[in-house]
Give the backbone structure.
Amino acid sequence: MTAGEGWLASRGLLRRRRVRTDCLVGVRWSDGVSLRLVLRDLDGARVEVDPRVLIANPRLWHLLDAGARSSLGRGTLLCGATALRQLSERIDRETAHPRSTRAGIRRRPEGVGPGRRP
């Protein structure tokens, strides 16, 4: 996967696919065996993205998110705000957890805190 301001591309075995993230019309989750985010732009171009790639590469996620926000602002993105929100929440969850444990911060079980017994 590669991306720049306003576009995202994937390279497969036979060809390269590219969508304009600033002109998205739809974003949805695929119905296949492996979970993929399917992006479609005004020109009909389509790219499938494995969410793990976006989790592993915050810069890539930032470029996709910025383009999708631009599409929302322009009014082209008619379907997909929920899928993008779900992905954003997943990325926040999965990227925040490793950082907090690396820093020595552990989440306390609910109901346990200073002055309370587990």
Notes: The radius of gyration is 18 Å. The longest helix spans residues 81-102. The mean pLDDT is 83.
